[in-house]
Design goal:
Blueprint (H helix, E strand, L loop, with lengths): L12 H10 L4 H19 L2 E4 L1 H16 L10 E5 L26 H8 L3 E6 L33 H8 L6 E4 L6 H7 L2 E4 L20 E5 L2 H11 L29 E5 L9 H16 L3 E5 L7 H16 L18 H12 L2 H14 L4 H22 L5 E5 L15 H5 L6 H6 L3 E7 L6 E6 L5 H14 L12
Parallel strand pairs: 2-3, 7-8, 7-9
Antiparallel strand pairs: 1-3, 4-6, 5-6, 5-10, 9-11, 10-11
Helix pairs in contact: 2-3, 7-15, 9-11, 9-12
Bound molecules: glutamine (GLN).
């Protein structure tokens, strides 16, 4: 039976906010409708690790009471889900790993706390690659998440459960994290909007650390307008995170109306080299033409060292993860091996049993590149090249306002297709990793559907230029309809 486009699950976050404010429905009605949606469609996608139906209904009732009392926060009564990497007080936080299979966090991450204080209702925690290491959600201990456009395909990763649930109209918004592309790539592969803010824009407190100099929290939504609304709540200085920055948070929603006329858009020569699927490339070129048609100026630019971003990332990220993950030792958190003979046996068996193959590969690579004999040759060298990549971006932003190009080299790929070949999997993030190495903000928005599967357009900007990339994305969404498309089985 065809669903009506005005049914609650089909509406965007901003539309739902307006409906709640107008009293068209209550948060309880909305929450019940979406919980039913999770029930009917959630398991097909394996998008969730934990559901929080009971507390969600209580939060919805509280939200309705607050609204009636004239005390509605900016996200009052709106449903959200969090990637299972954000600590949630009293709720399981597994990070997609066996080693945290039973870990219940004693506190909320700052992102979780800010979103909940703004009145949002938490429906559950989403599936992800183990410790956010992966590009397909296949390294999850809880099995792969599926792409709603075709459930034989991967939704991308590592925030695949968040992306799949937003694309499938199960929830209007979800949080994610992006260390090398884990928000932008799954957003592209599922046809939704995903933003990774500037490093330091959003607090990392309470996010389980993967690679601390690269990790950043962001959101998945179905429009740039919705992303702007959520980012405004999440962003800003946090005394718990010394890398969060004391930079004023603009009115992101208020700034969306800025036209693209006169905007200088950099098009990176290297982005259209071999490796990019022809049809995805065409979709991106069409999007660039559409922006040009609105008065933006396209300027070809060079990022001469960008080809080194994947190798640099696969030295820096494993190095940081080998250090960050040393805390999972069977003593302090989660899984513990049975009947250890001594302390060393406890460490070895706990970690041997608790971590999956990809996480072990990263820990071993990281330990190797940091070891005394190889530090200069690998880790130090990678840090130097990281600086060169950052400088290339800074130089480019002297002549352009934003950089636009593909988010991922191909559309969604089959589950199992790349699992035997880590390097092919790693190359998925070839266009996204540069922004993490340089700490820049980036957004992916849907820009076409070659062969029926979504393609993504990535917009990058200088540090703290979230407003500029959101406004450009919003203006593109005013003249195109790709962001409104819903996978057929999930209407
Ligand atoms: N796919 C990349 C990796 O496997 C990036 C993951 C991420 O951004 N968390 O490390």
């Amino acid at each position: 039976m065809p669903t009506k486009s005005n049914e609650l699950h089909m509406r965007t976050l901003s539309e739902l906010a307006r409906g709640l404010a107008a009293g068209d429905f209550s948060s309880r009605e909305l929450t019940e409708a979406l919980l039913a949606r999770i029930e009917s469609h959630g398991s097909t996608l394996n998008a969730f690790i934990t559901l929080t139906a009971e507390t969600a209904l209580a939060q919805a009732d509280d939200a309705d009471k607050q609204r009636a009392a004239g005390d509605a926060g900016p996200l009052n009564g709106l449903p959200i889900v969090h990637k299972d990497l954000f600590c949630t007080k009293g709720i399981l936080t597994t990070c997609g790993s066996r080693i945290l299979e039973n870990f219940v966090s004693p506190y909320d991450a700052t992102v979780v706390e800010r979103i909940s204080s703004a009145g949002a209702v938490l429906l559950g925690k989403t599936n992800m690659d183990e410790f956010a290491m992966g590009s397909s959600t296949e390294t999850s201990y809880f099995g792969p998440a599926k792409n709603p456009w075709d459930t034989k395909l991967s939704p991308g990763g590592s925030s695949g459960g968040s992306a799949a649930s937003v694309a499938a109209r199960i929830v209007p918004a979800a949080t994610g994290t992006d260390t090398g592309g884990s928000i932008r790539q799954p957003a592209a592969l599922t046809g939704i909007t995903g933003i990774k803010p500037t490093y330091g824009r959003v607090s990392r407190y309470g996010m389980v650390a993967f690679a601390s100099s690269l990790d950043q929290a962001g959101v998945f939504t179905r429009s740039a307008e919705d992303a702007a609304m959520l980012l405004g709540v999440m962003a800003g200085l946090d005394p718990h995170d010394s890398t969060s920055v004391d930079e004023p948070v603009p009115d992101y929603v208020g700034g969306l109306a800025k036209p693209v006329k006169g905007l200088k858009i950099g098009v990176v020569r290297q982005h259209f080299d071999e490796g990019l699927d022809e049809q995805c490339g065409e979709a991106v070129k069409d999007a660039l033409k559409a922006l040009e048609g609105e008065g933006a100026e396209l300027i070809e630019i060079d990022l001469p060292n960008i080809d080194l971003s994947v190798p640099v990332y696969y030295v820096v990220a494993p190095a940081e993860c080998s250090s960050n993950l040393s805390r999972f030792d069977g003593v302090r958190y989660g899984h513990r091996a049975d009947e250890p003979e001594d302390l060393l046996d406890l460490y070895c068996r706990t970690r041997g049993e608790g971590f999956g193959e990809e996480v072990k590969r990263r820990i071993m690579t990281g330990t190797y590149v940091l070891s005394a004999g190889y530090y200069d040759a690998y880790y130090l060298k990678a840090q130097k090249v990281r600086q060169l990549i950052s400088h290339d971006f800074m130089r480019a932003f002297e002549t352009v306002d934003v950089i636009a190009g593909p988010t991922a080299p191909t559309a969604a790929f089959a589950i199992g297709e790349k699992t035997d070949d880590p390097v092919t999997m790693y190359l998925n993030d070839i266009y996204t990793i540069g922004a993490n190495l340089a700490g820049l903000p980036g957004i992916s928005i849907p820009c076409g559907r070659p062969d029926g599967l979504p393609a993504g357009l990535q917009l990058l900007g200088p540090h703290f230029s979230e407003m500029a990339i959101l406004a450009c994305a919003h203006q593109y969404q005013q003249i195109t309809h790709w962001h409104q498309a819903c996978p057929e089985d999930f209407r």
